[in-house]
Records
---
Amino acid sequence: MAKVNIPALKLNNGRDIPALGYGTWLGLNDKAEFDPTDVPKMVDALSYAIDIGYRHIDTAHLYRVEPEVGQVINRKIQEGVVKREELFVTTKVWHHYHREADVEVSVRASLRRLNLEYLDLVLMHWPMSISQDGVDEKIDYLETWRGFESVLQKGLVKAIGVSNFNVEQLKRLVANSKVVPASNQVEINLNLGQKELVDYCQANNIVVVAYSPFGTMVPSRNQPNSPEPKLNNPTLVTIGKKYGKTVTQVTLRYLYQRGIISIPKTVTRSRVLENASIFDFALDNDDVRTIAQFDNGYRTVVPAFWQDFTNYPFEKRPVKLEIPLALRRWKNGANLDIE
Ligand code: NDP
């Protein structure tokens, strides 16, 4: 079986974090509902990922797959493929759980669903706090962060971090908290370079993790007006040919050379291998400069239905949208949690 060798970066708690992870968000379907059809494919692809050497797994309460992710992890431990301490498991606290005491409730529920004794990293998924009924709870993320500091102190998690925080929010958090976040997970890809945010994080020892690393490059995310590059972009194809690599590999390698960890999602075994086969070549400076020119600030993930909520982190758009029920109530709108 093929094997990949994924290097590690250091977190500010002194622990290693593998420089590439496996993302487990399967998305919502055309009706804006969670569709479990792809869950068995994800289980197969994640099993394969661990077999070939992936050690970093990114999940979240929102994704509804913590039970299945935990089953794969525990099976691979039982099979002797990997030890728990060799794995790096991240999950996230959803924005219904922003009261200080609720953070521990959420983390303990994730541990139960994953059937794990500790997490390597837990993130505040978004800076806003929104109830299941779509009410703006206006809870300051500084309060929520105290809940994160508490689960860290209790040993439920090895590191705590945030996600979708902009620079101002991160600076305010750092200035007013005991524990500096170990990581900020945000959208970064060739269109959205996030230079200011990345520079701030790297200067302050906060590891940057890129979600949606392919942006709108891949067909599932390709919008009618979305900008280049696509998978057939001639410039990137030419660069890839020079190194014997695909356009997606060039993309992930470029982010790695910026010191950024990517967590691409795929339910396709061949892509699991492809995405991690980026540590055996290096883009030269000319190619890095060329690729950097695709950065135009274009955002792929735009949850404009949250934009009027306190602490929404992105620029606002002139639209008014309803929050999809599946992002508020777990069972596609029913007011029930996942088991
Ligand atoms: P990605 O950029 O990872 O794109 C996923 C898509 O790319 C899928 O359609 C997949 O297809 C396709 N794909 C994957 N690899 C290849 C390849 N080598 N060649 C061609 N196509 C490929 O986007 P995501 O939005 O899924 O982000 C990745 C992860 O980041 C998520 O799974 C989640 O863990 C995290 N995330 C976090 C967010 C946050 O708010 N913190 C928000 C969004 C994501 P297929 O599966 O069919 O192979």
Note: The mean pLDDT is 97.
---
Amino acid sequence: SEFHALVPAAGFGARMGHELPKQYLPLAGKPMIAHALETLCACPDLSTVFVVLAPDDTLFHGYDWSHCGEKLQPLYCGGETRAESVANGLLASELEPDDWVLVHDAARPCLMQAHLSKLIAELRDDAVGGILAVPVADTLKRADAQQRIACTEPREGLWQAQTPQMFRAGLLAQALQQCRNVTDEASAVEALGLSPKLVASESTNFKVTYPQDLLLAELLLQQGK
Ligand code: C5P
């Protein structure tokens, strides 16, 4: 079975407060989305890199993708939510049920080749699949209605989910069919009663969500991550 990437990039990025969807904001000399797509296309294990765009997207073709080669395949079938975009993309990709698919956020531009290879190496013989994640570093407080601390949550055993999230295409399609109100692919697979593996990554693979995140991403990308 083969390995493929699928990048949902059909969101608006409302929390960034820009007109331009965040995946197209300029970052270290190119649109944000180009960073993750170039990293994925350069990974020798991956056969295809599907990018799921909004049906009315006009910005993707404004950038020269020739250096990504034949691997890069745009699909204009984005949905209302991230889960819908991934489900639509899986259907349009026509992958074999046994093929592995690595779903990665367009908004995680600092993904390192080393973490990508680690994820694939640790999961290629796994029965379920899994995700890149980092153990929670901060102390966690539960808030009450007055925004005062109700209690301190033990952080032991808690991880922050990242992407890529790697599953067999058939299993993931089935999971998303049954469970669409999820914020990541692993949640849908968990809802089937399965336990995806946590593969340790680093905080550098963070998701650009707020304006101040752009500055940090720019610095990391300039340092070569
Ligand atoms: O908004 P958020 O940061 O959670 O988005 C995560 C990823 O999902 C982004 O790459 C975004 O473009 C994508 N997305 C999508 N379709 C949507 C919403 C988000 O492909 N309807």
Note: The chain has one domain: 3-126+163-194+208-222.
